[in-house]
Amino acid sequence: MKKACTGKVLVAAALVCTLWSGLWSPCSASDDTVRDLSNRMVMEQAAEENPFLLLPHRPNYILPFYYSTDPNAEVQGLSEDELDRIEMLFQISLKVLIDNDFLGSKGDLYAAYTSRSWWQAYNGERSSPFRETNHEPEMFLFFDTDFGILGMKAFGVVAGVSHQSNGQGGDLSRSWNRVYLDLLLSRKNMIVNVKPWYRIPEKEKKDPQDPSGDDNPDLMEYMGPGELSFVFAHRNHTFTVLLRNNLRKDNKGAVELGWSYPLSKKIKGYVRFFEGYGESLIDYNHRETRLGFGLLMADWL
Which of 15, 69, 60, 33 is nearest to 155 (CA)? Predict the structure, then answer.
């Protein structure tokens, strides 16, 4: 109990400092999200010609303080006291262009890899283990578009396939394969991403220790058929909202909120909030609330 209260005090103090520095950081007068997005796409296209560069795919960040209200210790055979409520979270996400106008499709073919790790960095009693790491390689086609829908501009469509796994074995193994579509829309200072997916079926396990077969057959009951995300830009501040819902009577889902603001030309401060199911594969059926802050090296804009 004492450890939990101390953790809450630390997170609250850190969040106040982060909010203070973010609200008083210098900002430009531009709210033109579409222009910012266009600039990023132009810079990426130029960098694609350099064989020594890898491009950011999703945001890259590190949160030295990431607090959980309800750590999922039971699934790993631990007691609640054996897991720290405060851990470190970081994400590395990269992509590389494989081919322009792939097979005459007018779509650019990319390969990408995203790794997200939850590290019990301050848990010296258990040798500071990596509690969970999720790996996601994927391949996708990006199509430039220019048409209107629902009062917004559709500037891109993505079709891809991905595999996500936590690299574990036995009872801790979690994985799934999916195909997905991304519809990318923009309006003024907002970008909307509509991303439905279809999980590729796997055969049922003969027994729980069978290395082949579906490790998590009820995953879609928690992750749902897709996600909806928003990116809002105000001056140099970026706000993100991600929503998931299983669209069932039991109504399981997730909400993720993000706020980034400039600290320097290449580094931003980053505050992240998560509530719901499926933040990590090991916790896909465990509901919790998380709050953290840290640094962001590659943003959406």
Answer: 33
